[in-house]
Write a structure and sequence with these properties.
This protein is of the alpha/beta class. Strand 15 and strand 16 form a beta hairpin. The chain is globular and about 75 Å long. The mean pLDDT is 91. The chain contains twelve helices and 20 strands. Helices cover 28% and strands 21% of the residues. The protein has an eight-stranded mixed beta sheet with strand order 4-3-5-6-7-8-9-13. A four-stranded antiparallel beta sheet has the order 10-11-12-14. A four-stranded mixed beta sheet has the order 19-18-17-20. The relative contact order is 0.10. The structure holds zinc ion. Zinc ion binds next to loops.
Length: 475
């Protein structure tokens, strides 16, 4: 190998690959964003979205995945003339992305970058948190990544983060995007300082708490189950009242987990956030905690019927279908996330008219049909975490009985060993029946016992449903 590179070889430079002033005019970072795009009227937002959408469509037509997917549905370039035609575009889901997986990994056909032909730019690769087989790669260009970082900065600003605050990020650092993306956004666009403790496997929970206390961490980013676990370890094992630690905000994907008990445990505000590996943060609560505002200058978020994919009225549950307005690599046009949510009614007191969604109620493909009733494991968690005798930790075990009928057992961790167990089992079974409309068996187990199923202290990708039916492939 020659130490001297051949003539013509060059290494692309990150800061030369973006016109930052133009980028910041188009996607204002905080705090400027809150005096500009944030306050646009719905009509003004629509004009802005329409222009960006048409540009995004132009780019998408260059991507082999869309040529194939849209071509198969008979869509032609001239068919989409404005945002009004959005519903004519056939949606896709993660299953469609997988079809193109093996062409030339990791340069999947949905990414639209060809190393053999394209000018080099600095790229980042992160993946989905695949549980079986190879994870699904996603590649980001500098500008794609900066927009995502700007949005991270905006959401943290509106949740109260300010320069020199310390933000502890208890999300895995590795192939999956969550932890890495949080670090970039905090570092580049808030002035706060990320403290990357990672998951419990990377920094043991007790050490996480010691760091949080010693360095006076102000915000904690993590999955709600792990944030709750940290609080309980502090309180019950280290004799540290989490409320005394001065943490102001817990930044989580709340889903249907119980906000009140988590806020009471830590004496801090819980802020719900919605994002994905492919797009970063798409929506987040402002300090009024009145639904998650969609960052509509970067995303179009539809809430549609899961079967017909027609729009759902405000307040009714459907699946989130996302269209990005900024991505060069892997633009997402009507990506059916299969996450169940609803558009939030009313107007937020912050004055922004950006569309809001309620909570994420679960994944439609994680839903289990028990005796004709649709059950989300996440909804079970919501009931469990309201019972102060539990740690909030649970796992749903799905089995087929002798007659082939599906049966679900929920294992729930209780704080106290001994006599309380029977009472917890009985009470929770009654409350689950009330909340879900179907009988589910409850088994109280000792603290820490479900971690072997969920991976709570090992990973950010916590499992709540274990499908043990013989005939099914593992979820
Ligand atoms: Zn608001």
């Amino acid at each position: 190998m020659s130490p001297v590179p051949p003539a013509g070889t060059r290494s692309p430079r990150y800061y030369a690959s973006i016109d930052f002033d133009a980028l910041w005019r188009e996607f204002p970072p905080a705090p400027h964003f809150f005096q500009s795009t944030w306050m646009l009227s719905p009509d003004e937002l629509r004009v802005l979205q329409n222009e960006r959408f048409l540009r995004q469509m132009q780019r998408a037509w260059q991507v082999p995945f869309y040529q194939r997917h849209w071509g198969a549905h008979g869509l032609e370039v001239g068919d989409i003339r404005s945002l009004d035609d959005l519903s004519a575009i056939p949606p896709f889901s993660v299953h469609d992305l997988r079809e193109g997986m093996n062409a030339n990994p990791p340069w999947m056909d949905y990414i639209g970058i060809d190393p053999a032909a394209d000018e080099p730019v600095p790229l980042i690769l992160q993946t989905s948190g695949g549980t079986t087989g190879l994870p699904r790669p996603m590649i980001f260009t500098p500008r794609d990544r900066e927009v995502m970082n700007i949005i991270t900065g905006r959401r943290l600003y509106m949740q109260g983060v300010r320069p020199f605050d310390l933000i502890q990020v208890a999300l895995s650092m590795g192939l999956t995007n969550g932890g890495v993306l949080a670090r970039e956004g905090i570092w580049k666009y808030t002035g706060a300082v990320p403290v990357m403790t990672g998951s419990g496997a990377q920094t043991p929970t007790r050490r996480q708490i010691e760091i949080l206390k010693a360095w006076k961490v102000k915000f904690l980013v993590g999955f709600p189950a792990y944030v709750r676990h940290m609080g309980l370890v502090a309180r019950d094992e280290l004799n540290i009242d989490p409320r005394s630690l001065g943490v102001r905000g817990l930044i989580v994907h709340l889903g249907t987990e119980d906000r009140a008990s988590l806020e009471a445990l830590w004496g801090a505000d819980v802020f719900d956030t919605y994002g994905c590996n492919e797009c970063g943060t798409m929506a987040a609560e402002c300090h009024h905690k009145f639904g998650m505002h969609v960052f509509e200058d970067a995303f179009i978020l539809e809430v549609n019927d899961p079967d017909t994919l027609k729009p759902k009225p405000v307040g009714e549950k459907g699946v989130a279908v996302v269209t990005t307005l900024f991505k060069h690599a892997a633009p997402m046009i009507r990506y059916n996330m299969n996450d169940v949510t609803a558009l939030a009614p009313g107007e937020c007191a912050c004055g922004s008219r950006h569309k809001r969604i309620t909570a994420i109620y679960g994944r439609s493909d994680n839903m289990v049909k028990l005796r004709g009733v649709n059950v989300f494991p996440e909804a079970i968690g919501s009931v469990v975490s309201q019972d102060a005798r539990t740690t909030g930790e649970y796992v749903c075990l799905l089995d087929a009985d002798a007659g082939g009928r599906d049966e679900m057992t929920v294992q729930v961790e209780v704080l106290q060993a001994g006599g309380e167990r029977a009472a917890v089992e009985q009470n929770l079974a009654v409350r689950l029946k009330e909340a879900l409309g179907v009988s589910i068996k409850v088994e109280a187990v000792e603290r820490g016992a479900v971690a072997k199923f969920t991976g709570l202290t090992e990973t950010s990708k916590i499992k709540r449903l274990i499908d043990r039916r013989q005939s099914r492939s593992p979820r």
